[in-house]
């Protein structure tokens, strides 16, 4: 009976790992801009501008964002249902990933209608408040996605260290979280500078580092789950 439960625990952890690994891969689809012609400067433009309605490849990047969000959402729901994270930082972490997945999926359905950092006319319309409400909605869902990701990353890394489980995450997670917090501060400062007319502060580079670190953490978490037989609720 114990062995059967142990095998189920391993299977459940590996299923969650698969969701997160695939989600991490989909969330890095924007790196295709290195080999595809987008016409956008990756140093100075938002990542989400790749998926704008005016972009030729916008449909591709909206589809990969939707896929990433749904995969992470599925992984978080599976973890909540099957890995029994009942308490403390683990519960907060799974909830954070749930928010991240849902907000990322919603974000893909609320794309920018144009590219404000690359198109002066779009920037002027944005400054005048004449763009569709989806721009504001997109900003909200993007903020929720990053908030959920940061909460999930920090809380589950803390849980890994506190409970002595998911050793790859316990060992390397704090470094990834620290870097994520640093580039998030950079990105927020760059957005503030852009909105007040003080330059871009390499906003594109900062935001790309931000989303790349989120994907790296998801991959690290997937590896940790795959190497762990027992769920958190049964490990001490």
From TrEMBL:
Q: Which UniProt keywords apply?
A: Membrane, Transmembrane, Transmembrane helix
> Record keywords: Membrane included?
yes
What parts of the sequence cross the membrane? 58-81, 88-106, 139-160, 172-194, 209-230
Q: Which domain of life is it from?
A: Bacteria
Question: What name has this protein been given in UniProt?
Answer: DUF998 domain-containing protein
Source organism per entry reads Streptomyces boluensis
């Amino acid at each position: 009976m114990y062995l059967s439960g142990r095998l189920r625990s391993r299977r459940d952890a590996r299923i969650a790992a698969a969701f997160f690994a695939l989600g991490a891969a989909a969330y890095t689809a924007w790196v295709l801009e290195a080999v595809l012609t987008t016409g956008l400067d990756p140093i100075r433009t938002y990542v989400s501008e790749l998926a704008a309605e005016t972009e030729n490849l916008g449909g591709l990047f909206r589809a990969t964002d939707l896929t990433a969000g749904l995969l992470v959402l599925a992984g978080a729901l599976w973890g909540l249902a099957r890995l029994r994270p009942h308490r403390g930082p683990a519960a907060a972490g799974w909830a954070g990933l749930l928010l991240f997945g849902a907000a990322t999926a919603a974000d893909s359905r609320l794309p920018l209608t144009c590219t404000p950092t690359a198109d002066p006319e779009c920037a002027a319309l944005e400054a005048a408040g004449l763009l569709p409400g989806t721009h504001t909605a997109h900003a909200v869902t993007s903020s929720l996605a990053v908030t959920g990701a940061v909460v999930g990353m920090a809380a589950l890394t803390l849980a890994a260290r506190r409970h002595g489980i998911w050793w790859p995450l316990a060992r390397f997670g704090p470094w990834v979280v620290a870097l994520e917090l640093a580039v998030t501060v950079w990105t927020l400062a760059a957005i503030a500078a852009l909105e007040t007319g003080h330059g871009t502060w390499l906003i594109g580079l900062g935001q790309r580092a931000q989303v790349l670190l989120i994907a790296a953490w998801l991959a690290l978490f997937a590896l940790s789950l795959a190497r762990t037989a027992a769920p958190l609720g049964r490990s001490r």
